[in-house]
C-alpha cells in the first residue's frame, strides 16, 4: 500500500483525486484549510474504501501552512509516494482590479508552495528510488491570462525542468493541464460562467482517470481530453493578439464585489 498527499483535497479536482486514489487502495494525507470538511472527507473515504486517511489543516498562502506540509512530507517513518499539488484558486477581476497583495497570494499558493513541497517530496523519493508528483496547472498556462495563466505557465515549466533533472531517479513528475472543469473554482472566484458552452466542461473524475494514465505512461505534461488537445493544437498556430482577445474574456464576467 502506498500513500498519496493531496493539497486542496476537499473539493473539485483534488476531491476527485482523493476518491480515485482511495478506491485504488492508497492511503491518503488530505490537505486543505477547512477542518470540518477534511474530517468528513477522511471518514467517508476510510469507511468506503478501508484506507487510512490523515487530515492536515494548512493554509498554503502562509509560511506556517507550507511548513506544516513540508514537515509531513519529510517524515521518514511515513513516506509519501505520490504528491498531488492541486490547491489553487482564481482572483476576482482583471489586472488592476485585483489588489497586488491578492496576486502575490496566488503566486504563493500556485508557485512557492508547489516549489517547496515538490522539493521536500522528491528529496525523499529520490533517496527511495521511486515516487511521483502531479502538479496541477491549467491550459491557461498556454494562453494570455494574467497572473493566473502566468503562475500556471510557471508550474508547467518548473515541472518539465525538474522531470528532466530527475529523469534517471525513478521519480516521475507531471504537470496536469485541465481545461474547464465543473468544480467550486469559478463560484469561489466570483466568475460568471453562463457564456461558456456545455461542450467545454470536463468531468473531474474522468479528468483524474486520464491524468493517472498519463502519469503511468511517463508523460511530463498532460492535457487530458481530445477537445482540449485539439484546442491547444490550434492555440499553437493562432496569432497571439487574437488569442489574447479571446482568452482574456472567456469566463471573466464577474459579479458585484
Ligand atoms: N476548475 C477548473 O476549471 C480548473 C481548470 C484548470 C485548472 N484548475 C486548477 O485545479 C486546481 C483545483 O481547482 P478546483 O477547480 O478543483 O477548485 P475548487 O473546487 O475551488 O477546490 C479548491 C481546493 O483547494 C483548497 N484550497 C484553496 N486555497 C487553499 C489554500 N490557500 N491552502 C490550502 N488549500 C486551499 C480548497 O479547500 P479549502 O478552501 O478548505 O482550503 C479546495 O479543497 C487549482 O490549482 C486550479 O487552478 C482548475
From TrEMBL:
<comment type="similarity">
    <text>Belongs to the short-chain dehydrogenases/reductases (SDR) family.</text>
</comment>
<dbReference type="InterPro" id="IPR002347">
    <property type="entry name" value="SDR_fam"/>
</dbReference>
<dbReference type="InterPro" id="IPR036291">
    <property type="entry name" value="NAD(P)-bd_dom_sf"/>
</dbReference>
<dbReference type="Pfam" id="PF00106">
    <property type="entry name" value="adh_short"/>
</dbReference>
<keyword id="KW-0560">Oxidoreductase</keyword>
<dbReference type="GO" id="GO:0016491">
    <property type="term" value="F:oxidoreductase activity"/>
</dbReference>
<protein>
    <submittedName>
        <fullName>SDR family NAD(P)-dependent oxidoreductase</fullName>
    </submittedName>
</protein>
<dbReference type="GO" id="GO:0016020">
    <property type="term" value="C:membrane"/>
</dbReference>
